[in-house]
Design goal:
Helix content is about 70%, strand content about 0%. The protein is an all-alpha fold and about 325 residues long. α6 runs antiparallel to α7. The longest helix is centred in the C-terminal third of the chain and has 28 residues. About 40% of the residues are buried.
Length: about 325
Amino acid sequence: MSTASRLPKSVQRFTAKLPTEVNRTIQRLSVLSLIGQTVLVVTGGAVRLTASGLGCPTWPRCTDNSLVNTPEMGIHGFIEFGNRMLTFALAAVAALMLVYLWNLRKERRDLFMLALGLLASIPAQAIIGGITVLSNLNPWVVGLHFLVSMALVVFATLLVNRAFGRTGRFMKQVLPALPSVARPVMLAVAVFSAIAVMLGVVVTGAGPHAGDADAPRNDLDWDLFSHIHAVPAYLITAGTLLAVYLVVRHKIGGPFRTASFLLLAVTLLQAVIGFTQYYNGIPALLVGAHMLGAALLMSASTNAADIAKYSPAK
């Protein structure tokens, strides 16, 4: 007896109405998931940069007596509680994605497992967030919270590419051939992007924006680790410039061309923001912009590496 035949009749009638191929709704949900994960990075940054990290001083409640923020908590409680609520919105998007993929769960296992992973991350992130609050914003726990968000941006980017048939087993077009060096270079850029983000977490943990006046710092040399953090950034820039050179030199069109120029734009923007904040006292607004740039960099580098992986070599 099949799984479908064991389901209640009402459930069978419902699943019969669900799509049997990837449609616009599934594609839109994948894009919404990527946007949501990126917005979560920004709101998480707003929590820390406005010193609202303990706006809700306990967890899982906002206060000992309230699940939600109260007027007495002011703007900090509103910011922290709003960031917590965004995770529920992301969970709803991931759950809805799984529902729409139900009839495709075997045929499009790639999409189903990515969506399942994004949904499973919600309680994991919530627990890490709770530990963050209960540990008085320990910088290493705060950093882990941010790194998980970066990983989810990567998964959401892959979900978009698979949903639109840009890469993977169900590609809708044959990608232009790339020079053989393109694939390892793009993979290296993606790896260096991840390393830059991890070192950025260390720099942030040593910096002034702790999320609360009494939150601890990691007591590392901020200036030294800022320079170490710049090393993979230089390598990202070099790899991206090489990719753009290959695109122009070999007159490569299609998705890889777009991905390379997009990655270049994001890389240069991050460099400008990084240098500007370093030489101007690390203003909170620029730190927030740099966090958004980190999410965009992870997405752009993942996209370029993913496209290069599925492009034939010359």
